[in-house]
Amino acid sequence: MPARAVAFLATAALALAASPPDPCYEEGRPRRCIPDFVNAAFGNPVVASSICGRRGPERLCDPPGDQNPENACRVCDAARSDRRHPPAHLTDLNNPHDVTCWRSAALAAASYDSPPDNVSLTLSLNKKYELTYVSLQFCPKAARPDSVAIYKSADYGVTWQPFQFYSSQCRRVYGRPNKATVTAANEQEARCSDSHRLAGENSGGARLAFSTLEGRPSAANFDISPVLQDWVTATDVRVVFNRLHMVNEGDEVDSKKQAAAGTQHYAVSDFAVGGRCKCNGHASRCIPAKGEESQVQLACDCKHNTAGRDCERCKPFHFDRPWGRATARDANECKGLWPNYSF
């Protein structure tokens, strides 16, 4: 055999040995595969309905606690890089030693009888994901919200569905019972809970975390539950802050809290969304691809003769069996119309 041919074969053999195995196949047989778990929010833009300092410098205060009220205050000015608090800080690198915050404009004094604040944060993931959690970390010493609503969209913001509610008074604020039982008949219904009031405060700020499958009866059989698969699917997540934490009705308001009234605000340091790129078990990764109007967008690297941005259909000429989501038992590979014929 010529030396050049030997060198070519040796190079090809080395390349094959170096290439990692395809997670979507085992010894040539198709199997379910899923992309890595990621923080889908990281680096994505967030649209905030309220940002401090947009209309000029404004004074904002945290609850003073035991400190002098003046030490709990700062000036926010969107025109100055050292004093601005934009929503881009929500999805940047979360460093507990260098906390960056988004801060809303100052709010009127909170009251159950006043209209809700309706300060919103809208995160676009720009691809369907199957979400495991939505997490908000509040800035150190910041006022904590009393009533928060989380919504999700599965059609890129066209329609919105309630995902979860938090409030000390669920029925009064959201018209829902506190910690209602989820059954197999209502697994796609949002619950309201007051448990976020128990979340511990630490040096990095309190955290609110919503687990999308917690308490859902079919969670253990997620692979074969289309209802829950739809429930966790989202392209966008919106958080709406309705009210800050308030003193109980009838309680006396001390002079420090009164001094901070009208300067309190919402302040969040991290907005995280944990989940996997939705590929229906037919891809192990999502990659940039050209979409409509030649725009680059994230899409599944589909295997098993599937196609579509989410591997949600069979490739052309592979309709010998209906499309199906891959499970641990069956990869549901799309079959060609003719044996051993592929495109």
TrEMBL record:
UniProt keyword annotation of Signal present: yes
Instruction: List the SUPFAM superfamilies.
Output: EGF/Laminin
InterPro entries (UniProt xref): Laminin/Netrin_ECM, Laminin_N, LE_dom
Query: What are the UniProt keywords, alphabetically?
Result: Disulfide bond, Laminin EGF-like domain, Signal
Superkingdom per UniProt: Eukaryota
Q: Which residues form the Laminin N-terminal domain?
A: 29-276
Tell me the GO BP annotations in alphabetical order.
animal organ morphogenesis; dendrite development; motor neuron axon guidance; tissue development
Please give the CDD domains that the UniProt record associates with this protein.
EGF_Lam (cd00055)
Which residues constitute the signal peptide according to the record?
Answer: 1-17
Q: Does the keyword Phosphoprotein apply?
A: no
Q: Got a GO cellular component term for this one? A: basement membrane
What protein name does the entry list? Jg1848 protein
Q: Give the lineage.
A: Eukaryota, Metazoa, Ecdysozoa, Arthropoda, Hexapoda
